[in-house]
Amino acid sequence: MIYNQWYIVLDSKEVKKEKITAVKRLGKDLLFWRDNSNQIHCVERRCAHRGADLALGKIVNDHVQCPFHGIEYDGSGRGVLIPSIGKNGMVRSNFKVKSYPVIEKGGFVFMWFGEEKDLPEIKWLEGIDETFNYSSLTDIWPVHYSRSIENQLDVSHLPFVHYNTIGRGGRTLVNGPIVEYKDGIINVWVNNVVDNGQKPLKPEEVKKEDCIGRLQFIFPNYWQNIINKDLRVVAAFVPIDDSNTIIYLRFYQRFLKVPLIRNLVTKISMPFNKKILNQDKRVVITQRPIKSELRMNENLYQGDLPIIIYRRVREELKKSSKEVSE
Ligand code: FES
Ligand SMILES: [Fe+2]
């Protein structure tokens, strides 16, 4: 995992008021809950007393209560009550569980994984706001999250993996693509064409206005396909652990103005999106090794430029945060 990053870890809807949501994310057993003021908290699940799983406990007065001996922890993971020493007893500071900063944005829960000082602002997907309406689905893939990200930056797989859906038309020749990286964001302009025997254009020969669409990826784990200004596919590639990823896929649209029809169309389109995702899954889960690296036994070509840039930046970010990583 890249350290010092805001990761999308859940859909906001998964965290309910005064209820425990227990999940594994980034290889850690975590527990989330929403307090009475709607603030989400995240702590690790192992009780500091004798190691019971807090996920079996409950939320009491905005605190999580261990199911074993009732110790209560607040949102910062600090033990605030040990019933056996009484409510006026002094709780020693070692009765604490690790907590993680959490922020909601765009209907996702972001978790800070890193050093807890001067946290940066969360970057958000260009152009997506509450004027859009969306439907969502999730799926679990038995791969490292880097593989699922690279798949969505891969512009040459379309006519093969998606030959009967979004890759129709046999545009096998990849011009460019144009890839730009700045401040944790990769943008890719796609220009795939039918092969008439011509040479593919170099990235610098491709014009942005000739491109059929743009992909935008934000480190460490979210992405959108900008089909046009009113139509987007968004995905978050959430690491469960080193070999499993949960994908949160959303289909956003706002070209229909009537809310009821808009909702309906957004919902109806989901089986199609699910089909496309399954076409990807079928192949990506067969890639070996399941985790990608900057230097590995693969042979890349010009059309893989977005993947090359992704690997390079990921490597740089991993290195630059190494000194402070655990
Ligand atoms: S193990 Fe949690 S209170 Fe004892
Ligand atoms: Fe795909």
Q: Keywords, please?
A:
single chain; 326 residues; alpha+beta; Rieske Iron-sulfur Protein; binds FE2/S2 (inorganic) cluster; binds fe (ii) ion
Going by helix content, strand content and strand pairing, the class is alpha+beta
What kind of oligomer do you see?
A: single chain
Low-confidence stretches: none
Strand order of the largest sheet: 11-17-16-15-14-13-12
Helical fraction equals 10-25%
Distance between the termini: 11 Å
Rg from alpha-carbon coordinates: 22 Å
CATH topology of the largest domain: Naphthalene 1,2-dioxygenase Alpha Subunit, Chain A, domain 1
Summed over residues and divided by their number, the pLDDT gives a mean of 95
- Main sheet attributes: strand count, strand direction, barrel closure: 7 strands, antiparallel
Count of folded domains: 2
Total strands = 17
What CATH architecture of the largest domain do you see? Alpha-Beta Complex
| Beta-strand percentage range | 25-35%
**Tally of individual helices:** 5
CATH superfamily of the largest domain: Naphthalene 1,2-dioxygenase Alpha Subunit, Chain A, domain 1
